[in-house]
Amino acid sequence: MDRSWQWVVDGSAARVGVTNSRRELTTSTVVITERRALLIDPAWDPDELAGIAADLARLGITVAAGFATHAHHDHLLWPHGLGPAPRFASPRVAQICAQHRAEIVGRLGPDWPADLGHLVGRVRPARDRLSWAGAETRLITHDAHSPGHTAVRLPTLGVLVAGDMLSDVEIPLLEESTAAHYAAGLELLWSGVERTEVLIPGHGHPAVGRRAVRQRWLADRAYLDALLAGRDPDDPRLAEPGMAQAHEHNRILAGA
Asked: Low-confidence residues of the chain, pLDDT below 70?
């Protein structure tokens, strides 16, 4: 395979691979069972999308389903050449995509290829569980970061794909949510975090091992607590590109 994939689960029955885009370390996740795959949030640039499709084809993998964790343009993309796989998202995300797809595509910029633009946000609603011919897949849906944001939990594999939360390079980004929404989202994720061996954020790097996974959740909780208390958070992620500005935006949204 030409791309760099990290196989966070690499067993005889199932494999889970993660690759990072050159843009904002956006992750793409593939879950493979018996030559069938679930593809979560493929990203980002057209050549990277093409590379993901080519890699899976070379492995002889058929994509059986896709999933978008939330209704932001960088998580609603899809490459050509993967066949007629159905793509899913939470009911709220599917509704947003149906009503605002033109705006979402527009955020990709005027140079985004029209053929790829046609594939953006073509998702169907799914609740609680995702039915596909592979590993058991449970959905944890909340309104932190954006409405209908969903984490994908693979309980038999010990994997949690968290969307744009629990990152090692991004602080909690309130964006389209309130601080209360974010806190509620973290609480919902905790039950999954406690039983997770591998955490995959939407941007950044996987956390491997229960201690590392718990530390990601605790870091987000500590940041949010400091934000709500009006304190300057002691968070090394604030040194990452764009995070100081994001923190100021969070302060405005939280009324801090």
From this structure: 1-3, 256
**Is 1.10.10.10 the CATH classification of the domain at 6-254?**
no
The Cα–Cα gap between 239 and 55 comes to 34
Residues 174 and 250: beta-carbon distance below 8 Å: yes
Q: pTM, whole model, 2 decimals?
A: 0.96
Measure the CA dihedral 150/154/159/162, to 10°.
Answer: 0
The verdict on whether omega for the bond into residue 44 sits within 30 degrees of 0, i.e. cis, is yes
Q: Which residues of 9-33 are buried (b: 16+ CB within 10 A; e: fewer)?
A: beeeebbbbbbbbeebbbbbbbbbb
Rounded Cα distance, 122 and 119, in Å: 6
Mean pLDDT (the chain) is: 95
Distance (Å, rounded) from C-alpha 29 to C-alpha 114? 24
Contact residues for 234 (Cβ-Cβ < 8 A; gap 6+):
222, 226
In whole angstroms, give the CA distance from residue 142 to residue 164: 12
CA 22 to chain centre: 16
Nearest C-alpha neighbor of 65 from the set 38, 36, 42: 38
Q: Which two tokens stand for residue 158?
A: 């010990």
